[in-house]
């Protein structure tokens, strides 16, 4: 049990302890997926409460991949300042933060995206929206969206958001 309270390092990210808050759906982001003050405040409270690493809720990498209301987004460079401010606030409170990247696929919400959900196969299930089967171009587009989203939140001196993952 004492190991839970020991400082630990994952690659270049040092955490004050081994307590990890797993990704959960807070539903606190603004309508466009940007960080809201309420979401940032929650993350800061978790850090001040002693959580060593906070993993955000699933953050959608492209507009058509949004699953729910209040979901965090990482689909645009315009969202980086809010993500960076949230990360800085968590770091200032003594915590670390990571982003869970996601695409809802057939579970995307067409009411939010104004698009037909797309997934690896066309499925129809009870309570699910119609889903369009992805083409090769769609797979490439989603893969590229994941790559761009990862670059937005990756730590490093030559990235747009140098404080999101580690110090």
What report would you give on this structure?
- This protein has helices spanning 37-48, 80-92, 110-113, 136-153; strands at residues 8-10, 13-15, 20-21, 53-60, 96-102, 118-119, 132-133.
- By secondary structure, it is an alpha/beta fold.
- The strands form three sheets. The protein has a three-stranded parallel beta sheet. Strands 1-2 form a two-stranded antiparallel sheet.
- It has one domain (19-153): Aldolase class I (TIM Barrel).
- The longest helix has 18 residues, at 136-153.
- Helix content is 28%, strand content 16%.
- It contains four helices and seven strands; from the N terminus they run E-E-E-H-E-H-E-H-E-E-H.
- Mean pLDDT is 89; it is low at 156-163.
- A hairpin with a 2-residue loop joins strand 1 (8-10) and strand 2.
Overall radius of gyration: 17 Å
Per DSSP E runs of 2 or more residues, the count of β-strands stands at: 7
Helix proportion: 25-40%
Fourth-tier CATH superfamily name:
Aldolase class I
Q: What does the overall shape look like?
A: elongated
Q: Strand pairing plus helix content: what structural class?
A: alpha/beta
Mean pLDDT, as a whole number?
89
Contiguous helical run count: 4
Q: Which consecutive residue ranges, at least 5 long each, have pLDDT under 50?
A: 156-163
Percent range for β-strand residues = 15-25%
């Amino acid at each position: 049990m004492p190991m839970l309270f020991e400082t630990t390092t994952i690659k270049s990210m040092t955490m004050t302890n081994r307590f990890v808050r797993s990704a959960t759906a807070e539903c606190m982001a603004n309508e466009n997926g940007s960080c809201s003050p309420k979401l940032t405040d929650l993350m800061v409270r978790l850090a001040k409460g002693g959580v060593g690493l906070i993993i955000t809720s699933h953050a959608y990498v492209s507009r058509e991949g949004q699953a729910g209301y209040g979901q965090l987004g990482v689909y645009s460079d315009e969202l980086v300042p809010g993500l960076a401010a949230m990360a800085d606030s968590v770091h200032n409170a003594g915590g670390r933060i990571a982003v869970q990247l996601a695409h809802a696929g057939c579970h995307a919400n067409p009411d939010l995206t104004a698009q037909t959900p797309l997934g690896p196969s066309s499925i129809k299930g009870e309570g699910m929206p119609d889903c369009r089967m992805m083409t090769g171009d769609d797979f490439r587009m989603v893969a590229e969206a994941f790559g761009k989203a990862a670059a937005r939140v990756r730590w490093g001196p030559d990235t747009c958001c140098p404080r999101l993952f580690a110090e």
